Every structure is written in structure tokens, then in C-alpha cells.
């Protein structure tokens, strides 16, 4: 059940709203970017082909490096590991500021979700970080 | 199987697209958050200011330029070094006032506005206003108070984009009590 309160949003709620706003901004940007990146590429064979493109060309165009490790269960779940994520390297080299990391990852989650969306794939994208600047992006394809 | 990406000059161009689209997403979000263009302009200026007060350190560290002796030198450094470093363009410096305290930067193209069109209901929006804030914040950190604004904008149909900078005053550094 949800309760309706007249109190101002808690810091936690504000934080959650900011994260999803950032993710939404990334989504729009990702849709635009994938259009431009794939103008001249031939169409993709399958889902795995798309994910490899995201890990290599897409990531390189955005962050000048590839994803370091891609894992999948071959059932629509993918984990993309970046050992030195460009948006985290200036933040910390360990656990300092870990609680701030979501703000630096939300936009990129949206970028990936937006890119996939324009390639015909609905997904959820979340990020996981335990020791900066390494992080993992979890992509779960939605069944249509 | 690998698909070779077209690197080389392409990679720089792609990065600027991320920049342009991210900035566009930012302005779009601000337009949703604030009801009128004037408030969006103010927010962009404020954000730019916050960026500028930090960016100046990065700039000074990477560019190795020394202290400027006069406002003309400042203008040249802004146009030829700073703009080149951060936006990849070199605006021209023109329209000096007689007193030498005011000049224009003319940008033939503005990377922030690639692929951008202003919708009709946002005629008061100064889309690239973040840049004004950046300049203001950065120069404040090197003891210069300036006034900066867009006077022409290709987004609004002008042929070029023109930013006007006016020197207001030197900001004195605070001396500890007891010194002259």
C-alpha cells in the first residue's frame, strides 16, 4: 500500500528522484547516439551481436576504451564489467565516496538503455560498484 | 568476430556528439523543471559558474599559461587556448571598446548546438548560457569580475554566435589583518 503524506520529500526520496531523472536524460541521449553510431553499420545478427557492439564500438566511442568483460547467461541477462570506468576514475580509487557513485552511473545506465531501446530491445540497466573505479552494468532484456 | 570501428578522426567527433546530446538532455530537463525560460537561463548560468570556478584550475594546470598582463591578453588566452582546449573551436576576438574593457568572441560554430533547434515556445531561452557562467566563474577565480552575455545566436537565426565580455573590476585578494 502506498501512503500519501503531506510532508516534503525525504532526502532519500529526493535522491531516488534525482537518480531516475539522470537515468531518463541518459536514455534520450542514448537513443540519439545509437542512431548516429549505427548509420553505416550493417544490421545486427542477434542479441549477442548487439551486446558485443555495445561493449566494443559503443563503449569506445563514448569512453575511449572497451568494456573489459562481458558475461551472459544466454537467457537475456548480461553483465558488463569496466575495470576503470572513465566517469569514476576522478572520483575515487577505492571505497571513498562509494555512496556517491550512483549519481555518476545513472546517466550511463540510461545511455545503454536508450541505445538498446532504439535497437528494438527493452531492458532494465542497473549499475553495481564496490571498489572504484571498477563497476558492472547489469542488463536484463525484457521479454516482449 | 570483430567489427572494426572507424577510429582516427571519427573518435574525436563521436565524443563531441556525446557532449552535445548530454548538454541537450540537460537543457531539456531544466525546461521541464522550471516554468519559464528566464529561470532556466539563471540555472544554466549558475551551473556554469560552479563549473567555471573549478575548471580554471584544470585549465591553468594543463595550459601552463602565465598571468595575463592586461585584458587583451586575457581575451586571447580565452579564445585561442581555453576554447580550443575545451570545445575544440577558436572564436575570433573583435569589437574592442575604446576603453579596452569590452570585447566580443565570435563563434562561427558552437558545438553545443549541433543538431539543435529551438522550439517556438522557448524564444527567451539562452540555450548556451552555461558558457557565460563558466567564463564568469573561471575569471572570478583569477581576480576578474566580468559581465558576459550572448548578443547574437545562430540558434535564433543570427549568422554567428557572439558573446560579449565586459571587464567590471579587479577583485582584490583578501589580505590578512594587520597587513597594508
Automatic annotation (TrEMBL), chain A:
Pfam families: TRAPP
Disordered as annotated region, ranges: 1-20
Keyword Endoplasmic reticulum attributed: yes
Primary localization: endoplasmic reticulum
GO cellular component terms listed in the entry, alphabetical order: cis-Golgi network; endoplasmic reticulum; trans-Golgi network; TRAPP complex
Superkingdom, taxonomy of origin: Eukaryota
Cellular compartments annotated: Endoplasmic reticulum; Golgi apparatus, cis-Golgi network
Keyword check for Magnesium: no
UniProt keyword terms in alphabetical order: Endoplasmic reticulum, Golgi apparatus, Neurogenesis
GO BP, one annotated term: endoplasmic reticulum to Golgi vesicle-mediated transport
Functional description taken from the UniProt entry: Component of a transport protein particle (TRAPP) complex that may function in specific stages of inter-organelle traffic. Specifically involved in the early development of neural circuitry, likely by controlling the frequency and amplitude of intracellular calcium transients implicated in the regulation of neuron differentiation and survival.
Family: Belongs to the TRAPP small subunits family. BET3 subfamily.
Protein name per Swiss-Prot or TrEMBL: Trafficking protein particle complex subunit 6B
Organism, scientific name: Chiloscyllium punctatum
UniProtKB/TrEMBL annotation, chain B:
Cellular component GO terms held in the UniProt record: endoplasmic reticulum; Golgi apparatus; TRAPP complex
TM stretches of this protein: none
A GO biological process held by the record: Golgi vesicle transport
SUPFAM superfamilies found in the cross-reference section: Ligand-binding domain in the NO signalling and Golgi transport
Cell compartments where the protein resides: Endoplasmic reticulum; Golgi apparatus, cis-Golgi network
Chief location: endoplasmic reticulum
Pfam families: TRAPP
Subunit structure: Homodimer.
Entry-linked PANTHER family: TRAFFICKING PROTEIN PARTICLE COMPLEX SUBUNIT 3
Role: May play a role in vesicular transport from endoplasmic reticulum to Golgi.
Protein's UniProt name: Trafficking protein particle complex subunit
Species, as recorded: Chiloscyllium punctatum (Brownbanded bambooshark)
Amino acid at each position: 500500500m502506498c501512503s500519501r503524506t503531506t510532508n516534503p520529500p525525504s532526502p532519500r526520496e529526493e535522491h531516488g528522484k534525482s537518480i531516475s531523472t539522470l537515468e531518463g536524460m541518459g536514455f534520450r541521449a542514448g537513443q540519439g547516439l545509437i542512431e548516429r553510431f549505427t548509420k553505416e553499420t550493417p544490421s545486427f545478427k542477434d542479441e549477442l551481436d548487439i551486446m558485443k557492439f555495445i561493449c566494443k564500438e559503443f563503449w569506445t566511442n563514448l569512453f575511449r576504451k572497451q568494456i573489459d568483460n562481458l558475461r551472459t547467461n544466454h537467457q537475456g541477462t548480461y553483465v558488463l564489467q569496466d575495470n576503470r570506468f572513465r566517469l569514476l576514475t576522478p572520483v575515487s580509487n577505492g571505497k571513498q565516496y562509494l555512496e556517491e557513485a550512483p549519481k555518476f552511473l545513472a546517466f550511463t545506465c540510461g545511455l545503454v538503455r536508450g541505445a538498446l531501446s532504439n535497437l528494438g530491445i527493452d531492458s532494465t540497466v542497473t549499475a553495481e560498484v564496490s571498489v572504484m573505479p571498477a563497476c558492472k552494468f547489469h542488463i536484463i532484456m525484457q521479454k516482449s | 568476430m570483430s567489427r572494426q570501428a572507424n577510429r582516427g578522426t571519427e573518435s574525436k567527433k563521436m565524443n563531441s556528439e556525446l557532449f552535445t546530446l548530454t548538454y541537450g538532455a540537460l537543457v531539456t530537463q531544466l525546461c521541464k523543471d522550471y516554468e519559464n525560460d528566464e529561470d532556466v537561463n539563471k540555472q544554466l548560468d549558475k551551473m556554469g559558474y560552479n563549473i567555471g570556478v573549478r575548471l580554471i584550475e584544470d585549465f591553468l594546470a594543463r595550459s601552463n599559461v602565465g598571468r595575463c598582463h592586461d585584458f587583451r591578453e586575457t581575451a586571447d588566452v580565452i579564445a585561442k587556448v581555453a576554447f580550443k582546449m575545451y570545445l575544440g573551436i577558436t572564436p575570433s576576438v573583435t569589437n574592442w571598446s575604446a576603453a579596452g574593457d569590452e570585447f566580443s568572441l565570435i563563434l562561427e560554430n558552437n558545438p553545443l548546438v549541433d543538431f539543435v533547434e529551438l522550439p517556438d515556445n522557448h524564444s527567451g531561452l539562452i540555450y548556451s548560457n552555461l558558457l557565460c557562467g563558466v567564463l564568469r566563474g573561471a575569471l572570478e577565480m583569477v581576480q576578474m569580475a566580468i559581465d558576459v552575455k550572448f548578443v547574437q545566436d545562430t540558434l535564433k537565426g543570427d549568422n554567428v554566435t557572439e558573446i560579449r565580455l565586459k571587464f567590471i573590476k579587479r577583485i582584490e585578494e583578501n589580505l590578512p589583518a594587520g597587513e597594508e
